[in-house]
Amino acid sequence: MNKKGLMVILSAPSGCGKDTIFREISKIRDDVCESISATTRAPRSGEIDGKSYYFISNEEFEQMVENSSFLEYACYNGCFYGTPAEPVKNIVDSGKICFLIIERKGAQKVMKSNPDAVSIFLMPPDMETLKKRLLKRNTESVDAISSRLEIAREEIKSSDMFDYIVVNNELEKAVMEINEILNNELKKHNS
Ligand code: 5GP
């Protein structure tokens, strides 16, 4: 029998290092893929269409919603973000682990529609560290950073709805912890 793939929701406040964590995990495992989301947010400098996100207009996003093309979608800080359903299905059907790196409301929807999905919340060590990371990243205005921090407080409050909470204090430690979660879940999933 073919090995079954796995859907993994990785959620965290903005600036908590989800993308870095995924990058590090994909260096040590060859069975992980990331779902590429569609968004109406404008690209940041260095972001590549079709790699970082599919950058689309509000009209295109609405069309995808109408065509039921999304596994989930949500509005975050005034922009829309959605996970195209088909690529995720293809990755999971091929026996791989598909990471959905998404915010809380979308995560909640996937947990409901896909109870087999494994959910991980990446917790910042504290709010001050998160603020410093967002400022250092230098990709958002001061206003945008304060609203992201406001959203972060709400996200942290509902972190107990996730299967696992991993504190991202030391990158290497967090990566190892998630790697172990993946190994254990794959074992359970395929037993
Ligand atoms: P950013 O603007 O920093 O790239 O992303 C803002 C938030 O949207 C982050 O928490 C990110 O994980 C989340 N996000 C990215 N893609 C999706 C998606 O497809 N669906 C949902 N619900 N959230 C997403």
Structure description:
It is a single chain. The chain has seven helices and nine strands. It has 191 residues and is α/β, with parallel strands linked by helices. It has a five-stranded parallel sheet with strand order 2-7-1-8-9, with helices on both faces. A four-stranded mixed sheet has the order 4-3-6-5. Strand 5 (70-76) and strand 6 (79-84) form a beta hairpin. Helix 1 (18-28) crosses helix 7 (171-189). The protein is globular. The N and C termini lie close together (11 Å).
Structural class: alpha/beta
Instruction: Indicate the overall shape.
Output: globular
Number of strands: 9
Bound chemical compounds: guanosine-5'-monophosphate
> What strand line-up does the widest sheet have?
2-7-1-8-9
**Given the structure, what is the number of helices?**
7
| Low-pLDDT sequence parts | none
Largest sheet, strands/sense/barrel: 5 strands, parallel
- Global mean pLDDT: 95
Estimated radius of gyration: 16 Å
Observed structural traits:
191 residues, alpha/beta, five-stranded parallel beta sheet, four-stranded mixed beta sheet, 9 strands, binds guanosine-5'-monophosphate
